[in-house]
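queue> pop job 88
queue> type: inverse folding (structure -> sequence)
queue> payload:
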């Protein structure tokens, strides 16, 4: 998605080249004032497109980071609620690197949770449960994109990237709770895209 936007911005650069090539500074062709006006108009298109591309890419990166943070937190709590930890060092390392304030968690430090407390947090109505975690992720995308379809698409891709980055951090597939959270997040974003007239079935083939 982001690559397509960058390609699109390159297309606009042709406007400037065209303005300069087709309107040389010759009295018999056009005035200097008109030539400068044409160039400025083309340049303004390039600047606007480049600015929008940068804005969308930055948004996608923020979504990716936020999603990864949510998935890492959810998986960490899920492991804390289990009976055995296969890699406690990795768990500690990832938990120490989480920005819990960024996702609105104000509770007990995760490293200090008991098994029962962790289980409560990933339960159906828990802060790190599927419903609340998917809502945080999807709402972040929807609120940030508004009615901008391209930003919504970029945000959707950012969620998937965040999930994949979390998998890399843990060194393997995330548990079912995170897979379901990803699915619910994408469903909510797709619903918003549909409301804006996008055929999500075609888009996600």
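queue> result:
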């Amino acid at each position: 998605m982001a690559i397509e936007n960058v390609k699109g911005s390159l297309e606009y650069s042709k406007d400037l080249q065209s303005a300069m090539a087709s309107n040389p500074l010759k009295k018999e062709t056009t005035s200097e004032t008109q030539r400068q006006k044409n160039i400025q108009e083309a340049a303004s298109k390039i600047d606007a497109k480049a600015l929008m591309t940068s804005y969308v890419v930055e948004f996608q990166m923020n979504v990716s980071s936020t999603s990864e943070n949510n998935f890492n937190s959810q998986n960490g709590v899920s492991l804390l609620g289990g009976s055995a930890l296969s890699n406690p060092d990795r768990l500690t390392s990832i938990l120490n690197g989480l920005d819990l304030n960024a996702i609105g968690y104000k509770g007990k430090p995760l490293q200090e949770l008991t098994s029962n407390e962790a289980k409560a947090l990933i339960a159906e109505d828990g802060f790190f449960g599927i419903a609340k975690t998917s809502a945080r992720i999807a709402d972040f995308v929807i609120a940030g994109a508004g009615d901008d379809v391209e930003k919504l698409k970029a945000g959707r891709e950012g969620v998937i990237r965040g999930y994949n980055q979390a998998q890399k951090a843990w060194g393997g597939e995330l548990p079912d709770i995170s897979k379901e959270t990803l699915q619910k997040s994408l469903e909510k974003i797709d619903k918003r895209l549909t409301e804006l007239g996008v055929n999500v079935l075609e888009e996600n083939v």
